[in-house]
Design goal:
Number of domains: 2
Distance between the termini: 54 Å
Helix content: 25-40%
Strand order of the largest sheet: 4-3-2-1-13-14
Strand content: 15-25%
Largest sheet: 6 strands, mixed
Shape: globular
Mean pLDDT: 92
């Protein structure tokens, strides 16, 4: 209660200050700058372990090279990241993020804020990674035991300009990582925290930059656009979480705040150029993205490439093992698996039934991270599709409780959301035109209408049993543990031999 009262008092003071002083920039008797100053921010978001170059992804060697080119043109250049960086592909998962931090240190990152998936190894591991980092992790709204876990902000002199950086984590982290791994950690209202930061920084900066892992998805609340509307003192928001391209975010943004994002997976390096006048006011701010397509002559830095190559070679001997085959492409695209059931989602849910013998199985779309082309299926592909290290559990639910499970799963449609349910041995009718909470009907298990008073065994991830993706109705219902999701999927693939359209439908 005292903490809330304290925040309220600071917030009132902030509003009072803003009302009577106007802009917080360049207050007091600071001398004018000798001329215009250009500042450049290079930024990444939602890398998810995509540190190796591909046709569509820059990779760390090219990102480093691009940043060095920017610094050669303008010494006032800074590299930052806005989250979902430490976890994703096996190349960073194998040592629980240490490889990612080591290479980020080499690239010269200055700041980062946390994404929800950066908590996937557990809160204690994130703190260990933060200690390994040569860069500062900023997050104003992450609390434990009533105290901020990370610094809220940092002020840096760039060419005589006072640049204040602060970070915000999505409150969705509470259920978009395994809740069991972040017990006692809370994610407070980003807008309230942003207003508090503005108050704390009164008169101390010329340019205010937010590292935001909020995104602009319609299913998120708040979004970075909402943040910009309620906290217009922010000059620039470097955004992540929704995997939105710069072009798409510019179409959505109707505020005076420059909001940027680079898509995801290292498909681009964001570049923001700001010009500050002698009076310390912003003259211009522009954004662009360096991509493999628009920068075909960009070469990766040899030193970083060698470091990365050595790491990958050491891992590939294990990850290249073939664990199965498929005669059909298995669909795992984000925009598909978060809005509709795909054949890959069906296969993963079937694997849960095969190992557990449950009555039905549920796989969340957000846990499916890539597609698998027709041909051999390697261990590396499995860990790319299911990178989170969840394990399978079973528990009992009454027939009348299944409706709430499904309503949560489809509650964000038509917006894509990680909670979307991929099911095995369960069917239902969906009317997405109806209000959320009243969209599901005609639920059947094994082709038989569900008995409201009968107990059924559900198989799903420990992540969902812990309330992840807002499946709070499953909390406390887990009874039996099984191997990891990847191990269960591998076992089922070996059982099938070759995946075909014919054996896609599970039969006990």
């Amino acid at each position: 209660m005292l903490q809330r009262i304290g925040k309220f008092a600071v917030l009132v003071a902030a509003i009072f200050t803003l009302a009577f002083t106007g802009s917080l920039s360049a207050q007091g008797s600071l001398p004018n700058l000798p001329g215009n100053v250009q500042i450049t921010f290079a930024h990444t978001n939602d890398m998810h372990g995509r540190i190796v170059e591909s046709k569509t992804e820059l990779g760390f060697p090219k990102i480093y090279a691009a940043v060095q080119e920017l610094k050669a043109k303008n010494p006032n250049t800074l590299l930052v990241d806005v989250g979902d960086t430490f976890h994703g592909l096996p190349v960073v998962n194998i040592d629980q993020g240490q490889t990612a931090v080591k290479l980020m240190n080499e690239l010269g990152y200055a700041y980062m804020t946390t994404g929800n998936h950066d908590y996937n190894y557990g809160f204690a591991r994130l703190l260990e990674l933060a200690k390994m980092a040569n860069f500062k992790i900023l997050a104003a709204n992450v609390y434990k035991d009533g105290q901020r876990v990370f610094p809220a902000y940092d002020i840096r002199d760039m060419g005589g300009v006072r640049v204040a950086f602060f970070g915000l984590a999505t409150p969705e982290t509470a259920y978009k990582t395994d809740p069991k791994g972040i017990q006692g950690v809370t994610f407070s209202d980003p807008i309230v925290e942003a207003k508090l930061v503005v108050a704390e920084l009164a008169g101390k900066y010329d340019l205010l930059v937010c590292l935001s892992h909020l995104g602009v998805d319609d299913s998120s609340d708040p979004t970075s656009i909402t943040l910009a509307k309620f906290v217009p003192q922010i000059d620039i928001i470097l955004d992540g979480h929704s995997h939105t391209s710069l072009a798409d975010i510019q179409k959505k943004n109707t505020t005076n705040t420059l909001i940027t994002s680079t898509g995801a997976y290292g498909s681009g390096l964001g570049v923001v150029d700001v010009v500050i006048g002698p009076d310390r006011k912003v003259i211009s701010k522009t954004a662009r993205t360096i991509t493999p397509q628009n920068s075909p002559d960009l070469k990766g830095d040899p030193r970083i490439a060698t470091m990365l190559s050595d790491l990958v070679k050491a891992q590939d001997a294990v990850l290249s093992q073939v664990v199965g085959q498929t005669s059909v492409p298995l669909e795992g695209k984000r925009e598909i698996v978060r809005t509709q059931q795909s054949n890959l989602g069906t296969l993963i849910a079937n694997a849960m039934l095969y190992v557990t013998g449950a009555d039905f199985a549920l796989m969340n779309g957000g846990g499916i991270r890539d597609s698998i082309p027709a041909g051999n299926i390697t261990l590396k592909q499995i860990y790319t599709v299911q990178p989170f290290g969840n394990y399978i559990q079973t528990g009992k639910v009454l027939g009348k409780e299944i409706d709430a499970i499904l309503e949560n799963g489809v509650g964000k449609l038509p917006a894509p959301d990680g909670r979307f349910p991929h099911l095995a041995n369960l069917t239902y009718a969906l009317d997405a035109s109806k209000p959320a909470g009243d969209r599901v009907s005609d639920i059947k298990i094994g082709g038989v209408p569900v008995d409201p008073d009968k107990e059924y065994t559900i198989a799903t991830l420990n992540f969902l049993f812990n309330g992840g993706d807002d499946y709070r109705m499953l909390v406390g219902k887990a009874k039996n543990d099984f191997p990891s999701d990847a191990e269960v999927f591998i076992a089922y693939l070996k059982h099938l031999g070759t995946v075909t359209n014919e054996n896609m439908v599970y039969q006990k």
